[in-house]
Amino acid sequence: MILDPLLVDTGVAGALQTFIVAVYDQNQDPLENASVTPTRTTATGTQTLTALTRATGVATLVAVNVAGVTEYQASAGGTESNTIEIAALGG
């Protein structure tokens, strides 16, 4: 499972941030209709969301950047994605 954008580490507080989660099966084929649970962790707590992958094995999520450092990670079927940490400034 891959959570993207891998190379983003800063943002603007209040701006929208798009994330893409790609889920694959044991044969590395895209996994359709997988239930994905992205989480967002900030200094004030954790928010859990849900999404389903399309036929391409991809789910799209849009979140509003909050001021400070936020950590994003997704899970599906007991597997966890990479973690993305975004430091949102200003607004």
Task: Tell me what you see in this structure.
- With 91 residues, this protein is mainly beta.
- It has one domain (2-69).
- The chain is 0% helix and 56% strand.
- The protein is built from no helices and 10 strands.
- It has strands spanning 2-4, 10-12, 16-22, 35-42, 45-48, 51-52, 58-64, 68-76, 79-80, 84-89.
- Strands 2, 4, 5, 6, 8, 9 and 10 form a 7-stranded mixed beta sheet that branches. It has a 3-stranded antiparallel beta sheet with strand order 1-3-7, with no helix packed on it.
- The chain is elongated.
Set down the secondary structure blueprint.
Elements: E1 2-4, E2 10-12, E3 16-22, E4 35-42, E5 45-48, E6 51-52, E7 58-64, E8 68-76, E9 79-80, E10 84-89
Parallel strand pairs: 2-10
Antiparallel strand pairs: 1-3, 3-7, 4-5, 4-6, 4-8, 8-9, 8-10
What labels describe this entry?
7-stranded mixed β-sheet, 91 residues, elongated, mainly beta
What would you say about this model in short?
0% of the residues lie in helices and 56% in strands.
